[in-house]
Design a protein that fits this description.
Elements lengths: L8 H13 L4 E7 L19 H13 L5 E6 L3 H18 L7 E2 L11 H11 L1 H9 L11 H18 L4 E7 L1 H10 L5 H4 L7 E7 L2 E6 L2 E5 L2
Parallel strand pairs: 1-4, 2-3, 2-4
Antiparallel strand pairs: 1-5, 5-6, 6-7
Helix pairs in contact: 2-3, 4-5, 6-7
Length: 228
Amino acid sequence: MLIKNEIRNKETLSNIMHLINNGIDKFVVIMRHSDRYFSKNAAMEPFMGLTEKGKDYALNFGEELPLMPRPKFFSSYFGRCIETACIIDKGYSKKYGAFNGHNVLNPDLSPFYIKNIENALKMVNEKGSPEFLRRWFNRDISEKTMENPKETADIISNFLKDRLGELNKEEIAICVSHDWNLFPLKEFKLGLKHEEYGAVGFLESLIVFEDKGSYYITNYQKEPVILT
């Protein structure tokens, strides 16, 4: 069984505007990159770039962001994530004539949790992504192949909270990552199982923000919950 990839740019933009309209003036968005090329060759995986449609989606996303709060960009070191962040920034700067600084690469937005990519991709190709993810989340995959999934979710959520703490008012961080970085957050922080709530689409996101001294996480499928 293969996971169907949808484009979730509208859901992400809607969630961003919802928070802004409710008085949240700084927050962190972690989102999957835009539409990409695929390869079954594990050695090529880090080098798969965006399709032409993916580039258009990213540019349009940047153009549809509001002027304020102003975005700061972070990404995985994989090319498709760097491309997505830079093209979103280009769309934003094209519309508003604003420079937001350079995209910052960070390993916590990359697939640090994959310890043996050949083994992982072999299992995905044999069983499909949904079954692989369930086995990972149930800890049925050796930690020699995949990092502990709960610890993975904690590492990523702590990264997002750290970025939030660095923001000024009227700033947001847009962190471009991978669907496998978002799946653990949905599973362990929002309680959204992929078997029920589906794949993480292109440009789909989760958002972390602070309100009255507590951290919250939310996405288009669930109201904010306290981030533990």
